[in-house]
Amino acid sequence: MPTFTFEAKSMAGEELKATREAKDKYDLSQSLRREGYVLIKAEEGKQNALANMNIKLPSFLSRVSVAEKMLFARNLAVIIASGLALARGLEILAEQTGSEKFKEVLNDVVASIRKGENFADALARHPKVFSDLFRAMVASGEKTGKLDESLKIVAFQLKRDYDLRRKIRGAMMYPAIIIFAMVTIGILMMIFVVPQLVTTFAEFKTELPTSTKIVIGFSNILSNHLLLFLASLVAAIFGAIAILRTRQGKNFMDFAVLHIPVIGKIAIKANSARTCRTLGSLLGSGVDVLESFSITEGVLTNHYYKEVIVEAKILVEKGSSISKVFIEHRKLYPILVGEMMAVGEETGKLSEMLFRLAAFYESEVSQATKDLSTIIEPVLMIIIGIFVGFFALSMITPLYDLAGSI
Question: 294 and 185, same structural domain?
């Protein structure tokens, strides 16, 4: 059966861009019309050789991306709102997904629902795909009869979280590329350029300064033991990753991230935004306060923020206000967070205040990442200048001495 890449639009104006298998364009159009969409454009894709060979990655190598889950939640919300049965809607989404892993998961969810399980319990069978937040929102939607609204909130939450991570990664991409290029060029010069100069120094028996000897020593290591150096480098990288995966390593990284200039401020704002949006989504959907704190704790990755959430949960159990802990931890959460939470509790609009805070700090992170790119460029130029200057002085000084002695 051919696969079509298509664009469709619902009566509410929501656009859908995806791929789906269908007998022909007419069959695709009819399928979309049953879901409340009108087909705008469709192109038949060509199956490549790998697809025809039906080659699949092992399950442990495949993963479901955030973008796929976001699109799934958004489309399922539209399908449910149109009145289509949940199981049928899931089958349709399973057919149109391009991920074999996600297709298997959705088909298993459909099978569980047809056996009588509710949607949230069926999702709980796949904790690596559907997070606690996703499952809690679905459970809340099923209890209140507003599953489509809960799924829209989940889709929006996933989108904001995805955008936040993408902006932070995008800000770090430029320096990573520059550093990689600088290291690569440095290694090539050590292997091909420095040995030529060393031969000249050896012929004239020139006395070399300490900096030159250091450069030559490093060059000898790369020229004569390149494989050993690369193996040691790879071992060091994997060793560092293994250490950082330990509890002590993670705690060190959490501390370092929060105290690095500029990066620390972005981390504080990003964690504040994630905390506020997660709590706001859960509380706004009717999830129990204590359960909301437990789920939020799982969403956060920095252990300092996890500890604040655990403390808040304990105090709330004892009858304290939600905002109290956040006001007390001003080094982790800006004072605005606690104060706005207090206002939200007093007015009975806590979830609304949390959404406003989340939107504010997400915009702050967006601006901070732009500023970071501006700051990093001159800093990188200075670092590159230092290394280039050190190398130039180390190699040119003996040449000048050699020229003076001739």
Answer: yes
- Containing structural domain, residue 180: 162-406
Q: Domain check: are 154 and 180 in the same one? A: no
DSSP state of 54: T
Tens of pLDDT along 224-244? Answer: 888 888 899 899 999 998 998
Residue 99, helix vs strand vs coil = coil
Q: Compute the chain's Rg from CA coordinates.
A: 28
Give me 283's structure tokens: 């509380």
Q: What is the CATH number of the domain that holds 374?
A: 1.20.81.30
pTM of the model as a whole: 0.67
Do 154 and 168 fall into the same domain? no
pLDDT 10s digits, 105-157: 999 999 999 888 889 889 988 988 888 888 888 888 888 788 888 888 888 88
Give the whole-angstrom CA distance, residue 391 versus residue 406: 24
The residue assigned the tokens 């959430």 is 309
| Residues forming a β-bridge with 53 | none
